[in-house]
Write a structure and sequence with these properties.
Number of helices: 19
Helix content: 40-55%
Radius of gyration: 52 Å
Shape: rod-shaped
Length: about 500
């Protein structure tokens, strides 16, 4: 709006500038009159000032009668000039007629008349007011230091409405006022665009914008809903628990590993558990999800950090243990070895004096070279190595020998059928596994010991280490601390032995 008004103001200044030049120059001419020579001068002035429609010579100052003009020459009869519309307060010698009409002049569109002394100029008002704009506007002259304007042309009352409503930002419309204070008549323009007009003119754009905003809102809402559903989904809960670092979700239970000869705890296996504000998830649910999301190493580091924090509360006794942690196959791939070396979790565990034992599966998708390189790497970092669920896979003895394990863990399915009679097929393989361990100079850990008969049979076969519900279920760090402090596992193991021997 302001740019349009500025363009109109520029054109108006050209018109009024020509009018003022004519009035100033001819008004001071001592030869002012209706002689043939002077009429020719008026005609020449009209030719060079295209916005001036005609120049009238008056018989007296500011009115009376027009006696001749630059266009029509000497009038047969003097033409009566009506009273002026107003007198300029900026230039008191200027008189203005709006919608100027007189009976002696031919009807024309030149209806703005400005007179100074005995000379006046007719201006084609359409030059000033013919602009087509998308808003209402008014041209007016404003006396110095006054808040009212005298309407010239355009839509009457626009300026007064602007004064009445003010220029507050909350006004439901747009109003602009421009004035040329240097112009002799104090010419001003005011424009006003109502909210209704703006809406009507830009209806398509506004509706399109609203539709676009609604679509953006709908997409954003959908994404938020998807995100919320993901956060409550099993993958989302697991991802948040691994990466948020707020401790919510994963925690560890510890199943003690006993020396079956003296009943002392010589190590623990860290077993991950999960529970958040939605509920608990069993390992057979969250472990495959972690593997599928390729988040295995982040999870393993989280478990190592929790183990370090938990066992740090037990002091020196935990430093004498071997802490078994289950590693994923992907954790031991060659491309992950640099991250394993640089792991802050592993470094902190070593600084705390903990001996970490990496449990790897006998079978799996790892290439043999990858597995051997990984185990060499782990030993360089201070890890011991155990083969978990030994006997379940299909590795030959040569491959197991290359792995050089520190421990062989006999899977519980071999233990379940064993007793002092050794009648089951799988149980009959246990002596062979013990013999293989001796050849490899590895210790045997029996998993899943649940009955006194199983314990007695394993002891008679020379199995030194074991874990299972008979000895201790997986317990929290607080319960483990109480067991260590009260020496309860030793007493329990002694009772189990008496039970196994029938005494």
């Amino acid at each position: 709006m302001r740019a349009t008004l500025q363009t109109m103001m520029t054109r108006t200044k050209l018109v009024t500038q020509q009018a003022n030049i004519v009035l100033n120059e001819l008004g001071k001419d001592p030869e002012l009159g209706c002689s043939s020579a002077y009429l020719r001068k008026l005609s020449a002035t009209l030719f060079t000032n295209s916005f001036v429609h005609d120049i009238l010579i008056l018989d007296e100052v500011a009115g009376g009668y027009a006696i001749c003009s630059g266009t029509f020459g000497i009038f047969p009869q003097p033409i009566a000039i009506p009273e002026p519309s107003f007198q300029s307060r900026r230039r008191p010698d200027r008189y203005i007629w709006l919608n100027f009409e007189t009976d002696g002049l031919p009807e024309s569109s030149a209806n703005l008349f400005i007179a100074a002394g005995r000379i006046g100029v007719l201006i084609n008002q359409r030059v000033l007011s013919g602009s087509k704009t998308p808003f209402v506007w008014e041209a007016f002259t404003r006396p110095p230091d006054e808040d009212y304007g005298i309407h010239l042309y355009g839509t009457p009352g626009v300026f007064q409405e602007l004064i009445a409503t003010g220029t507050h930002l909350l006004t439901p419309s747009i109003s602009v006022e421009l004035c040329d204070e240097r112009e002799q008549l104090g010419f001003c323009l005011a424009g006003h665009n109502s909210a209704a007009a703006i809406l009507q003119r830009h209806k398509v754009l506004i509706i399109s914008s609203l539709i676009f905003c609604l679509l953006i809102g709908a997409v954003a809402q959908q994404r938020i809903l998807i995100r919320l559903r993901y956060r409550k989904s099993i993958p989302g809960r697991i991802h948040r628990a691994i990466h948020n670092g707020d401790g919510d979700g994963f925690y560890c239970h510890y199943q003690p590993i006993f020396d079956l000869q003296n009943g002392e705890i010589v190590g623990v296996e860290a077993l991950a558990r999960f529970e958040d504000d939605i509920g608990a998830l069993p390992p057979d649910v969250f472990i495959p999800e972690i593997d599928k999301a390729h988040d295995t190493w982040a999870f393993t580091q989280r478990i190592i950090s929790m183990v370090t924090d938990d066992l740090g509360t037990l002091g020196d006794i935990a430093r004498s243990w071997t802490i078994s942690i289950n590693f994923f196959q992907n954790d031991l791939r060659e491309d992950n070895l640099p991250m394993l070396t640089a792991s802050p979790a592993v470094a902190r565990a070593r600084q705390n004096g903990l001996t970490l034992n990496c449990e790897v599966l006998e079978a799996g998708s790892m290439l043999r070279n990858d597995k051997e390189a990984a185990l060499t790497h782990l030993r360089a970092l201070g890890f011991t190595v155990s083969i978990d669920d030994f006997g379940v896979g299909f590795s030959n003895l040569a491959e197991v020998r290359r792995m050089s394990p520190d421990y062989l863990k006999i899977d519980k399915q071999f233990i379940q059928g064993i007793d002092h009679k050794e009648t089951s097929l799988r149980a009959s393989l246990v002596p062979n596994i013990v013999d293989i361990a001796r050849q490899l100079k590895a210790l045997v850990i029996a998993e899943g010991i649940e009955t006194p008969d199983q314990l007695a049979a394993l002891t008679s076969l020379g199995v030194r280490l074991g874990q299972g519900y008979l000895l201790s279920r997986p317990v929290s760090i607080d319960a483990l601390s109480q067991m260590v402090g009260s020496d309860a596992p030793v007493a329990l193991l002694g009772a189990d032995r008496r039970l196994a021997s029938g005494s």
